[in-house]
Amino acid sequence: MTKFLIRRxxxxxxxxxxxxxxxxxxxxxxxxxxxxxxxxxxxQSPQVTETAxxxxxxxxxxxxxxxxxxxxxxxxxxxxxxxxxxNSWKYGESVTKIFGEVIWWSVLMNIISLIVEVFVAIPxxxxxARKQYRATDYAVTxxxxxxxxxxxxxxxxxxxxxxxxxxxxxxxxxxxxNMYESLGTWGKIGDIASHLVMPVATLxxxxxxxxxxxxxxxxxxxLNSDYIRTARAKGLPEKAVINKHAFRNTLIPLVTAxxxxxxxxxxxxxxxxxVFQIPGIGLYSYNAMVQxxxxxxxxxxxxxxFLTQISLILxxxxxxxxxxxxxxx
Length: 329
Description:
By secondary structure, the chain is mainly alpha-helical. It contains 13 helices and no strands.
């Protein structure tokens, strides 16, 4: 196990570095020079005495863009290894400092949405498999396909129109209401919770459809296995057959599905937080990228690459936990 983990971690780090290099190369090849735009903005500040040309040369040297793509990336990588991703152009603070301040709202939303997905998608997937080709199966399948097909910005907009504009049950956007500061402890918690209902539901729907279909497909495969027919022939209750025998083996392929959820959560939050104006890493990254904030863009894409590799490593480990027949080698 130790040798395996070392190999997987080293391979994961190599993939993260290659992904960051591709991102850096694409940014360097863009036709628009965000450095020039940034230099002009800085030169217009009354506290700055340098010209736009001098500021441009300084910025190119600071971000390693005064040389080739490879040498510039090596310089960026040397700083990134020490967790120095530079200062955000849009927010004027350290990228890692901003990340530490806003990431927790994204983590909270994703944890809640994951719980919702597990308790909705997996039972519905199992139910659809048990009721194959019946009305229940068709209803679950249609719902799953709708969840898979609809983009997050459309789902979020529909939720806002129905529950905020028409019914006025929930706040339209933001994380806190106008009366937040005057509320008590439980009132503040309730205010934040009401603002998170639609964003969490939007994030959950993005994965519920896929997870339901995946669970149904694998449960059908398991239910048609010989050992399931044998268990039923022995007179075991259907509940025991499903929960004790079939579901345990369905968990094995589900581990693969869960391995992709970690990076997809933050990828989905990129749009969902923007639609609902939730001050998490997704909204901050969007606002930074549309302004050509290269330090923040490099950090966010590298962060997603890193999460992807972490999820894949966890997936390999979970295989051995879920199925004793599997041994990591």
